[in-house]
Input
Amino acid sequence: MSRVPVITIDGPGGSGKGTIALRLARALGWHLLDSGALYRLVAVAALDRGVRASDETGLARMARKLDVRFEAADDGVAVILEGADITDRLRSHQTSEMASRVAALPSVREALAERQRQFRQAPGLVADGRDMGTVIFPDAPLKLYLTASPEARAERRYKQLKEKGESVNLSRLSQDIKKRDERDSTRAIAPLKPAPDAHVIDSTEMGINEVMDTIHKLIKESNISH
Ligand code: DC
Output
């Protein structure tokens, strides 16, 4: 039986994955999974309910039960947690820190794994994250690993946050990115790394259109039906 096709896009924060994944999903008419948003949601819920990063069992229980909806919005996707639109809180410094901590907990990852696989629906899925190609969809017919220099990534995040009206400091952001990269790549479970069969794209010197062209070429070369 042929399975619903998945294109996985993994890589560090600020590599442009989110934008690229959204564009690609729209271009193909496929579903989109922003798996980082799930970890961020657990973080927001934990902060709101006073569940600590050290309470792995409590966090995993919460992750299993979260009432989450993703709704199409003009500028991307709106995230609804228990009926409240929390999209604007997802990318804050506090949420990012907590998300990186909860993402290192095996029971939380396990609790979110099945939820992520449920996004695999016809006609296809574009899955954005850290372990999409290595752990969640190891049989994906096309795996991409998008990266960029830490400096370029810090600058992209800086612009993103500024546009949202957050007061940000570039050097602090740069330090945060390095710290999170370190935590995400060295954790024992599902560390950030390219799958052996992933195509690595370094976008440091590339614009979005160039990255999209490269990906469309790879799609043509692979045997993905759509
Ligand atoms: O991609 P992002 O910045 O929204 O991810 C938020 C955090 O969740 C980040 O610290 C990495 C982690 N994450 C993960 O461990 N596995 C994923 N599939 C996606 C994100």
Notes: The CA atoms of residues 211 and 217 lie 10 Å apart. The longest helix spans residues 170-186.
